[in-house]
Amino acid sequence: MDDLYRDNILDHYKNPRNSGHLDSPTVTAEGVNPLCGDELQVELQIEDGMVTDLRFNGRGCAISQAAASMISDVAKGKPVAEVRELGSEDVLDELGIPLTPIRLKCALLSVQLLKVALGDAPPEDPDLTWNSG
Amino acid sequence: MAVAPAHTPLDAARIREDFPILNRPVHGDQRVVYLDSANSSQKPRQVIDRISRVYEEGYSNVHRGVYELAVVATEDLEAARDKVTAFLNAPSRRGIIFVRQATEALNLVAYAYGRKFVGPGDVVVTTEMEHHSNLVPWQVLAQQTGADLRYLRITDSGELDPESLAALADLEQVKLVSVTHASNSLGTLNDVQALASWTHERGGVIVVDGAQAAPHRPVDVQALDCDFYAISGHKMCGPGSGALWGREELLERMDPFLTGGEMIRTVSLERTTWNELPWKFEAGTPAIAECIGLGAAVDYLTEIGMERIAAHERALTQYGYGVLSEITGVTQYGPPPEQRGGVLSFNVEGVHPHDVAQILDSVGVCVRAGHHCTQPVMTRYGLAATTRASVYLYNTAEDLDALAAGIDKVKRTFGV
């Protein structure tokens, strides 16, 4: 379990790559892991079928934020088709450690958001809510 | 059965020996420091063995067979009901209904009382500090019936805001109030008796979520003057069985919750009649061994003494609060330690609760990280989550020292 907080994860958590904002992003998406309160927001610049630039911002646990930072380096400069395919294997490869199912959800928030931004996954299902109004 | 005098200190180290899981190592050779009983409690050998004995010696379906095994199982189940009746000082066993846990108990009231007696514009009151299981059923009830749902708010220190109650004081009619006896995320203890008076003055019924109270302190539903009281066996050294106590005259007027076998008297294609209390609210074969196990848990706790358990927790909570307040960067939430139940909710600056809990796990300390099924509490304080340690009869001061040492490791790991 001590491996979980190895240097590269802590480094990405404290010094997240590709954070901040794009001047005019092509698409954006936001998401929350309500189980524990991890929040992430992603902005993508897409030109000629390539993700030429992207930004991740958020607050949350070291796994969720480090995974987003690591994946941002992987996704930058790649074709949209490749970025679409990023999934749990890629995230686990980057993190370099096994994760229990609960922490896996933290790690996957970033790739989930990429799919939402690219229109491959719906945001929160509105039918599954209760509203006071 | 002898009950130890209230002033005798509880021998937690001796009690710990009763719990098999607390005596097996985790992560190879770490001692288990279990500080998550608010989530679910560990079980003593006495309860585990009683459940096994049901299946080994006295199992059959209940309430119907004429053979000896059926008589034994039925008597054991109904004896467990009598134990729960005494545990809550309920006036009669006819008001004790076996359910899976407090969530089911609260849903039972929402459906069987709420759907029948709450109508459009009726006022239903709950609080901002509730566990989702005592919040969502009332939201859904209000949506389904058109009732007007109001919330009592909490102060910065996590207690019910008296101004919030005062704002509702002019209401002449309140249909239903539902409140927790003890908060699972802040430790707040609510004055149920006072809220019951307030509710009855306005013609309403008061429902109490006792999931975090009944395991930890004496509960007397008659003294509290409440109308419904929900408990969870799994939080009080028992298995997955719980109970709802309800005032008999209310239960008589309510329609059944789940229907089918057991809860009927006669069934024909034209007309079906209900069984008498309490079985009117127990459809289908009960979780027989679990209910008997709940009775064994009641025996176990009663023999130790609920006052002694409460006193033990009070001392540990104050000690733990003090230890945590000495660590720079730790913020604690909730009422002053001498006024709360055995819950310590906190944050370590610069580290997310999930990471705190993960590193604590590496040194054998089990705590919960997240919103603790109280998202409105988190929102109230502008938090995503907290880390929560909770104490029970098998915890010692050493456990809280281990918690503090673990937090030091968290701070070193993250360089904060």
CATH topology of the largest domain in chain B: Aspartate Aminotransferase, domain 2
Strands of chain A, count: 3
Helical proportion of chain A, percent range: 25-40%
Summarize the largest interface: chains and residue counts: A-B, 21 and 26 residues
Oligomer: heterodimer
> What is the CATH level 1 assignment of chain A?
Alpha Beta
Q: What do we call the CATH topology of chain A?
A: Sufe protein. Chain: A
The CATH class label of the largest domain in chain B is: Alpha Beta
**Proportion of β residues of chain B?**
15-25%
- Tally of domains of chain A: 1
Helix and strand element order of chain B: HEHHEHEHEHEHEHEEHEEHHEEHEEHEH
**Major sheet strand order of chain B:** 2-8-7-6-5-3-4
Query: What proportion strand of chain A?
Result: 15-25%
Any overview of this molecule?
The complex is a heterodimer of chains A (133) and B (416). Chain A is an alpha+beta fold. Chain A is built from five helices and three strands; from the N terminus they run αβββαααα. Chain A has a single domain (2-121), classed as Sufe protein. Chain: A, CATH 3.90.1010. In chain A, helix 1 packs across helix 2 (62-75), helix 2 (62-75) crosses helix 4 (88-95) and helix 2 (62-75) crosses helix 5. Chain B is of the alpha/beta class. Chain B folds into two domains: 12-39 and 305-414, Alpha-Beta Complex (Aspartate Aminotransferase, domain 1); 49-303, Aspartate Aminotransferase, domain 2. Chain B is 39% helix and 15% strand. Chain B has helices at residues 12-16, 45-57, 68-87, 102-117, 136-145, 162-167, 192-201, 221-224, 248-253, 288-304, 306-325, 353-362, 375-380, 397-414; strands spanning 33-34, 96-99, 123-127, 148-152, 176-180, 205-209, 228-232, 242-246, 264-267, 272-274, 330-333, 343-348, 365-366, 368-370, 386-390. In chain B, strands 2-8-7-6-5-3-4 form a seven-stranded mixed β-sheet, sandwiched between helices. Classes of the chains: A alpha+beta (133), B alpha/beta (416). At the A-B interface, loops of A face helix 5 and helix 12 of B.
